[in-house]
Amino acid sequence: MCGIVGYVGERNAAPIIVEGLKCLEYRGYDSFGLAVADGTATDGGGKLTVVKKQGRISDAGSDVSLACGNIGIGHTRWATHGVPSDVNAHPHTDCTGDIAVVHNGIIENYAELKKTLIAEGHVFKSETDTEVIAHLLEKFRNAAAEKGLSGIEKVDFAVKNLMDTLEGSFALLILIRGFNGLIAIKRFSPLVLGIGDDELFASSDMTPILEHTQKILFLEDNDYAYLMPDGIRLFGYPSAKTVERDVKTVDWDVESAKKGGYEYFMEKEIFEQPAVFVNSFRQKIDDGAVSVLKKASSITVVACGSSYHAGLIFRYLMEKYCKIPVRVEIASEFLNFTTAKGTVVIAVTQSGETADTLAALRHAKANGCPVFAVTNVLGSSVTRIADYVLYTRAGPEISVAATKSFIAQCAVLLRIVSIIGKGIFEKELFEIYPVLEETLLFDPADASAVCKDAENIFYVGRGVYYPISLEGALKMKEITYIHAEGCAAGELKHGPFSLLTPKTPVVAVCTKDDAYPVMISNIKEMKARGAPVIAIGSGGDADLKEIADIFIPLPRSKNICEVISATIILQMIAYNTAVLLGRDVDKPRNLAKSVTVI
Ligand code: M6R
Questions:
Q1: What is the rounded distance in angstroms from the CA atom of residue 92 to the CA atom of residue 386?
Q2: What residue's CA is closest to ligand 1, atom 9?
Q3: Which of 50, 171, 202, 540 is the least buried, fewest Cβ under 10 Å from its Cβ?
Q4: How much is the pTM?
Q5: pLDDT per position as a tens digit, 499-509
């Protein structure tokens, strides 16, 4: 996730872009950049200035004063391809320096495109996926010129061909030297336009725009627009025909706009999960990494908190479907143990900075194990220790409670299972998006009403739903301050049963998988001790509905998709309960997002 912003008007663009990027820093902040054009020039003339640097836009200082002109684009980055650095910062330019591009999203076919463009003589400066866009535009503009096209027809030709060629998600803002305007393109990444008095704005969300105008135009996927001093020209792809979109008057303040209208970042992050899962699962894993994983005699995962739970989920699936032994260790305990040579060790860490996880990975490396990292932060400390790095595509997570980063970890780890398991789950998980969208329609009010008055809550499940129960309990205790405990359903009768009363709700995850019959018996045993049962189960399960006090049906889907849906339901119950209790949801007491001390 990155933030992009654009301006066309009579004012100097640079200060407006800089202030806009500050509003978007929550979307990423490892580097920034802007390009400003002098819009008075005609085709072939004018000046285009690019300023870009590693670091935060708030530290930009006088660097941007060089950029003068009344058309501009800017970017604040959360690195996905290429470490944070001056050269990888956006905007990216073509060989001539006449085209500047800022991008939010992922170009899935960039590696093939880059290879072809290099063979055709284009010279690349960065490691990013975005740079191919600038070079493709250069190529298509040259092709248009050869056909005798000029002015707007040349731009039309280049944009149409660009959209034909790119695969993946992208919100783009493009400046072309001598083109008196800016080009905005949207496909599967957010982009809105703002309409002011004699000036136009473009941005990843409306936060940078609201201080200038409340008139917002929401682009749809495959829309592209030319923002010109005399107005917006808006088209649909592939028809290239003019399209009409409503202009809405938005009276949000900047803070609620940053949260996309959600009350807390946690809620926003929960709702981002369908796209986060798909983006994280669909990525290609490096052949070298795959071959090391395929040869592993055993795998050990080291992690903390939610990342540890993602590791446990991996264990259940890897052992069951790939028959590879997997150990999962809490990172802070790992130094007590030995690891056999030949074991592949995987550190799972959102931040890439958790001190215990880093220490565990160093320990494994010192023992001669090949070490992997699954992390959300490009260039983080763990990436410098690991031999192989697999990235989750969650974007920055602001809320202390891990939600979308956890789902992204599950996606990447499931990808490994799928690769080692010769394509198992691939089809189901490639098509999971609508299932997760449907999951988000769940109303947690009834379940939260029960949970909010409890002093203790149990979460139970069997098989892969045991770690999911641990994660559900962690989410609940972390943000509501209610004591919540995750248990393997079969373990309850070995002790915790003595705690069950009508005042201790049990959240049971019980889908129609192999463990279903025995889970039903376990739930009946809990009911017999008077505990109210909130059961999350497969859609249409009349038996479970009959037994449970509250039955939450999952969208009808394959078993593996239910694993992800059930996790989201547990997040929503915890979130809603915390809101009912008036907790500071995004910043729970005594906790930090990244734990960099041992
Ligand atoms: O950045 P990491 O994934 O290494 O962080 C590990 C834990 O601190 C983290 O998952 C923590 O448990 C979450 N706040 C839970 O929601």
A1: 29
A2: 305
A3: 540
A4: 0.80
A5: 999 999 999 99
